[in-house]
Amino acid sequence: MPARRRINNDEKDILDGIVAQLKSLTDPAPFHSHAAANRSRLADDEHHAGAGIHIRCHSIWTSAPAQRKTLSSGDTQPLPPDRKTRRREKNRVAQRAFRQRKENHVKQLEDKVAALEAAQAKIEAENAKLQQDLARAKAENTMLRFVTFLAAVERKIINAVSN
Length: 163
Fold this sequence. Notes:
Strand 2 (68-70) and strand 3 (76-78) form a beta hairpin. The chain contains 3 helices and 3 strands, in the order H-H-E-E-E-H. The two termini are 57 Å apart. Helix 1 (9-26) runs antiparallel to helix 3 (81-162). The chain has one domain (9-135). The longest helix has 82 residues, at 81-162. With 163 residues, the chain is mainly α. Residues 30-66 have low confidence and may be disordered. Strands 1-2-3 form a 3-stranded antiparallel β-sheet.
């Protein structure tokens, strides 16, 4: 089994970024905070639309009735059905496009994670091979030092006997 290597800071930052992006795509909190800001903006628009005619706008996040025009006399008229239908269809198309973009982005991030994990596995395998080569070289070095030491001792013994 190859030895596990430590992930360097750059690789860790990349993986942390990918994980954060995946979490942000599945976390509903950013959408809720945006919705609250949108509701308050729409409420302000309702009061500052103009002098004679006030148009009440409703967000998809509110439970208010369909858009209506309020005339200065106080009478209300519902929006024509074709405008409602067009708006609903436009919202459906936009939501579908957003879901598709989100799905594509998640897929890209998952592919990137898989590629990084494969690269990490390749690097770990190379590291294990290099560690084995190093151990083999150290053993060979130790053996050669021992052989050299024995040869030096043998020469000294031969020189001592011949003198």
